[in-house]
Amino acid sequence: MKLLIIGAGAAGLMAAGAARRLGHTVTLLEHSGQPGRKLLITGKGRCNLTNNCTEREFLQNIRSNPRFLYSAIAAFPPSAAMALFEQELGLPLKTERGRRVFPQSDRAADVRDALLRYAGLSGGGGQSARLILEGAASLLLQNGRCTGAITTGGRRCFADAVLVATGGVSYPSTGSTGDGYRLAQSAGHSIRPPSPSLVSLVEQGDTCRQLTGLSLRNVRLTLLEEQTPVFSEQGELLFTHFGISGPLTLSASAHMGDPTLYRYTARIDLKPALTEEQLYKRITEDFALLGAKNAQNALTKLLPAKLRGVMAARWGVPPELRANQATRPQKQRLAALLKGFELPIRSKGDLEHAVVTSGGVNVREVDPKTMASRLCPGLYFAGEVLDLDGYTGGYNLQIAWCTAQAFAANL
Q: Which is it for the CA torsion 73, 78, 82, 85, positive or negative?
């Protein structure tokens, strides 16, 4: 078959590789000028390419429409993705905390290069895919069927099957501009409006501005909706000039609803390994040793330098108070603050900086086994352009892999 794949990102490259291995003729359209560009920034440049979990665990980590993925993930689970990269594409992998899978080299470029080889864009054996560095201006629709696309350069590309794998609208600088939604709508599909998912959180106030650049490891972040916890996990957190970011925050953001309807608070446990009583005893021991130091300097053993001033201000004791003069209630209050450092959250970050887009092509209008449009024969979808998204940890790239493989395997 003659295939046209619109978008040479994660899903598009995976689909191209799988299709050409099955003997199909593949043409890829990519308007950004660089295939796999967004892959280069995933996982802080290391590329968390999947999660070493079972199919059931994978589905439990999908936020939107997990049932749609039953067939695709059964046919191409994380173990199959890992085997493909390691055994067929020669990319050694490793599994880290949270079962996150990375290349042993810690280089996202190696994942991208492996996919380019798989797609036949840089060797790799077999029939190579053809790459055209143009976008799709419109689909070619004849008698209710998709027969190809017209490129932004005016070329008419005809095909037996057209796959839209353009991604969402997150990180538009990498080429994710939402073109796939426009193309899908032209074929009669409905779109759930895109919104940011896996994104930084914006603070109500200026505490974080004072802590900009401070990274904390092994802290627990709990996100409260009103006063009810909707997320709680331990890991790494980063303060920015507008709020908080880092892996914990990205995960928490996926559990956040409409901040105009609910009040959200980020509660940070700075000492999750200790109970409040154990922490009180440690504070007492530290203060006894520090003796004549004032309140802020008494926090030397407890907190990084950048956080001491902010914590001292919240603690509210007189600046001249000496460590060995602190009363039991004062030390108990400090312990409570260390276990529950709270930040009111105003909003999520914007789509421009979201790792993943929530929303997209209505999956009820797509066959879950083949990724074929139920409305327009000859048209298919894969990856983030669909209304599918998961939590952080490699789940979103696994969505791209399994939906792309489902497309190729069922042509």
A: positive
